[in-house]
Amino acid sequence: MMQRINIFISGDFCPVGDLEEKLLNDFEPHEIYDGLSNIIQNADISITNLECPLTLVNDPINKFGYNFKSNPKIAKVLKKSKFNLVTLANNHIYDQGEKGLKDTIESLEKYDLNYVGAGETLRDAQKPFFVNIKNQKLAFLNFAEVEFSCANESHGGANPMNLIDNVHQIKYAKKDADKVIVIIHGGHEYHHYPSPKTRKRYRFFAESGADAIVAHHTHCIGGYEIYEGAPIFYSLGNFLFPGSEKQNKSWFEGYGVNLKVDEKAIDFEIFPYTQCKNHDISIELKSKESELYSQIEKISDELENDEFIKIKFKQYIEGKREEVFLGRIAGYRRSTIYVFRKLGMFKFLKLFMRKKDISFIKQMMTCQAHQEIAIEILKDYLK
Q1: Would you state the pLDDT for residue 245?
Q2: CATH of the domain at 214
Q3: Using H for helix, E for strand and C for coil, what is the string for the chain?
Q4: Average pLDDT of each block of 10 consecutive residues along the chain (383 residues)?
Q5: What local confidence, expressed as pLDDT, does residue 347 receive?
Q6: Which residues span the domain enclosing 77?
Q7: What pLDDT does 152 receive?
Q8: Whole-structure pTM value
Q9: Do 326 and 300 sit in the same domain of this protein?
Q10: Residues 338, 198: one domain?
Q11: Which of 279, 304, 329 is the last residue in one of the domains?
Q12: What pLDDT does residue 342 have?
């Protein structure tokens, strides 16, 4: 009879600022992780998502958004914390380019830490991590939505989310493993629910052989469901990720999940917490009677209503309309967007941009043939 295997998985770990300083100054795990420390240490395998390269190099790539990095000695911190697998497929692992990625891998290997989801070539980034535990072979796969960090034919980086490639990876791993665990860095930031397409994609991974799917990246908690026997967690939120006072309350909330794997099924337990709240660089574990635990359960119950998910996503889109339309599509600067918003002029955009032009942009983004051409042209332009 198969012995139960415990797999602990946490969300985004970004040791920057005060957190980096505290972790490098002879910390004790229980001082940082609260009650999670014992859970991490007692699991058969404990996993966290390293949301930045570990390097002393300061060579940020040209990208939209922040460029992070942390001290290579953070690898020693992870080892002391009893993490033994680090996921690297995320939108920041390539923030300091090839050298930053190489330094990260060397630091992890120096402290005998396993990793998955990134590599110095696309082929290396796509490799699953296999491990034998209690006479069972487990496979871990790690994907990231395609942003600036992803590997391609030219350079290394994160394992990109590509439905066809990812399903091939799942099927390949399934041939050689008893259970396949898929960990994804994706979803819509500050949105507690998966979009209809995100849920469709993750469910398809379950249909294709994934025994559990765990996601992070959104900087907020999401719900979970069981689909065709596979638990799917749509967002664990941040694990340890300092934020400013301007951050949304959800930034400081998260939960870890302990997958309990046996021969027939995967059961689980969740551990909600607040992190780096009120400048306290640590985690505070919450009980099952807490408001945060109830919120996770409520979101999970709401996932059963397909129409509710669609409505929530439409509301989310409304909140992003000006930023995306004016900034990303029309190309206006923030100062101009501010004026549009202040004067309530968004509805007059039709006077500035023809529907025919917008229709062409939409076609370039959605038609596979046009999209392929546009991407290649833009890649050449950005060289």
Answers
A1: 81
A2: 3.60.21.10
A3: CCCCEEEEEEEEECCCHHHHHHHCCCCCHHHHHCCHHHHHHHCCEEEEEECCCECCCCCCCCCCCCCCCECCCHHHHHHHCCCCEEECCCCCCCCCHHHHHHHHHHHHHHCCCEEECEECCHHHHCCCEEEEECCEEEEEEEEECCCCCECCCCCCEECECCHHHHHHHHHHHHHHCCEEEEEEECCCCCCCCCCHHHHHHHHHHHHCCCCEEEEECCCCECCEEEECCEEEECCEEEEECCCCCCCCHHHHEEEEEEEEECCCCEEEEEEEEEECHHHCCCEEECCCCCHHHHHHHHHHHHCCCHHHHHHHHHHHHHHHHHHHHHHHHCCCCHHHHHHHHHCCCHHHHHHCCCHHHHHHHHHHHHCHHHHHHHHHHHHHHCC
A4: 91 96 91 96 98 97 94 97 98 98 98 98 98 96 97 96 98 97 98 98 98 98 98 98 90 98 93 93 95 98 97 93 75 75 69 72 86 86 80
A5: 65
A6: 5-304
A7: 94
A8: 0.94
A9: no
A10: no
A11: 304
A12: 77
Whether 105 and 193 map to the same domain: the answer is yes
How far is C-alpha 314 from the chain's CA centre?
22
Same domain, 218 and 340: no
Same domain, 161 and 287: yes
Contact 218, 188 (CB under 8 A): yes
Do β-strands 224-227 and 266-275 pair in parallel, antiparallel, or remain unpaired? unpaired
Dist CA 162 CA 146 (whole Å) = 8
Do 299 and 313 belong together in one domain?
no
Surface-to-core class of residue 114, CB atoms within 10 Å of its CB (0-12 exposed, 13-18 middle, 19+ buried): middle
CA dihedral 159, 160, 161, 162 (to 10 degrees): -110
Tell me, what's the pLDDT at 322? 75
> pLDDT tens digits for 256-274?
999 999 988 899 999 999 9
Cα dihedral 280, 80, 60, 251 in deg (nearest 10): -30
The CA distance from 63 to 204, in Å, is 31
Same domain, 232 and 329: no
Tell me what pLDDT residue 343 has.
77
Tell me, yes or no, whether 312 and 194 share the same domain: no
Amino acid at 69: K
Q: Both tokens of residue 99?
A: 């050298």
Q: How far apart are CA 356 and CA 123, in angstroms?
A: 41
CA 194 – CA 223 distance, rounded (Å): 9
Residue 138 · residue 131 · CB < 8 Å: yes
224: which 2 tokens?
Answer: 């979970």
